[in-house]
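Friendly challenge for the regulars: who can give me the structure tokens for this chain first? No prize, just bragging rights.
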Amino acid sequence: MSVRHDGKAVRKAFSSPLASVFVIAVTVLWTVPTVGLLVTSLRPKQDVTTDGWWNALLHPDLGLDNYHTVLFEGGSGVSTGLMPFLVNSLAISVPATLFPLVLAAMAAYALAWVRFKGNDALFFVVFALQVVPLQMALLPLLQLFSGGAHLGSLTLLPALDLKGTYAPVWLAHTMFALPLAIFLLHNFIAQLPRDLMEAAVVDGASHFKIFRSIVLPLCTPALASFAIFQFLWVWNDLLVALTFAGGTPEVAPMTVRLAQLSGSFGGRWELLTAGAFLSIVIPLGVFFALQRYFVRGLLAGSVKG
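First reply, four minutes later:
Bragging rights claimed.
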């Protein structure tokens, strides 16, 4: 009875008008820097260097010239705009999100519902791989891609000619995302009703049909939740991109270009803010498009009965 009473008291406290005012105030404070970034990116250079962005709310003089310069011209000392790097970021982030999502979903289903020898041991190995730091594996992976794997004079894996392609970045992000993705999706898939799975088997459904027709639709919230985290991670990544893609416009993502812009345009805040805002628009769009699945995925399994 005391636990139930405490739960009602907590819900009442969080639904009170004072709590609502507090949440609104925190939300406004959290949004102010983003609004300032957007307003600064729309102002001309002379206004940015003379007064604060809040003055533009009283005397607006806004335009898209900064975005045109950053995207297509590059500015002084820089010959290439952000547009090719923006396309590269999409070409890297979308496959690097889909590959681990598809592989992890299939592996999680197999570990949860397909019984085979060593099933539990394999799951614990996957779980343990989460502790391997990303930084420790970058150099071995780079050597593996460029020189292959050798045991004395025996070649275990020939050198992969992947220079100048997206493949090394896709592979690196997929490798490091799989352990966590399999662990999270396994816990979700393992909680699916056993009666439902057994009924499908009795009806003659194969594992592939069960996975495609039952598991995937029911796991949409979990898949969307992981997709958001993985997409944000890959989109904002700089370390893996610099290691495996370098800084060439052919394959380098937007984060590499933004790092270069901060050095080239150290005093041109209107261009830096335009580039920074472009870098957050697409992740925001992905999050808002999947947020209803994201909330359902976070709440999944929190209430029983």
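The beta strands are 149-151, 154-157. Confidence is low (pLDDT under 50) at residues 301-305. Your move, everyone else.
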